[in-house]
């Protein structure tokens, strides 16, 4: 290799950019900060996440509070069958988080997983409420609608479970660790508040309100469905 070829190779290897040159577009994207809640360091989006979780827990525990009574008095099943179906539903609710985690990590991401499975969740509640209307078909229709509704509810409530809290934590910037810790405290407070209130309210709706000449299971399931629609709207 002669001297001119060596100089050309050096020029190729060592190319400098002056300080005044602009970096190529697209290589350094500007991170847009999310709007804050009332001038604090809390992202505005976490308010919707907390309300969403309150409504979701209200809808789930409110429906579950009268589920066994629904099997006993509406379907006229015996205690063994009612208990078996109730526990099978509960077990499915604790298995489906695995499905939600797989969907979020390897396919859709947390946000889309929450949205899509919340739609499934709402559909399950609505189908379950319609299945509790006595004048709609015979008992076989009620059982089919209720089981389909319960399956969709189990898929929805379990599927979003591993995503919501993590998605809420992702809203905070790295330096706001104390705000993130307080968010999780408020987040789990909303879970417990929704669960507690619904456990008292839903049995009252079932027993104290009469529809179609008997206990109003359609209303007891319909109110949690309405709360879940509200949560999806948030």
How does this structure look, described?
The chain is an all-alpha fold and 234 residues long. The protein contains eight helices and two strands, in the order αααααααββα. The chain has a two-stranded antiparallel ribbon. Helix 2 runs antiparallel to helix 8 (217-233). The model is unreliable at 5-31 (pLDDT under 50).
Search tags:
single chain; 234 residues; mainly alpha; Growth Hormone, Chain: A; two-stranded antiparallel ribbon; 8 helices; 2 strands; 74% helix; elongated
List the helices and strands and how they pair.
Layout: H1 3-13, H2 45-65, H3 67-74, H4 79-108, H5 110-131, H6 139-170, H7 177-208, E1 210-211, E2 214-215, H8 217-233
Antiparallel strand pairs: 1-2
Low-pLDDT windows of residues: 5-31
Following the backbone from N to C, one meets helices and strands in this order, namely HHHHHHHEEH
Largest sheet features = 2 strands, antiparallel
Strand content: under 5%
Shape: elongated
Into which percent range does the helicity of residues fall? Answer: over 70%
In order across it, which strands form the biggest sheet?
Answer: 1-2
Overall mean pLDDT stands at: 82
Question: Which CATH class applies here?
Answer: Mainly Alpha
How many H/I helical runs? Answer: 8
Radius of gyration: 26 Å
**Assembly context of the chains:** single chain
CATH topology group: Growth Hormone, Chain: A
Q: Could you tell me the number of beta strands?
A: 2
Give the termini distance in whole angstroms.
70 Å
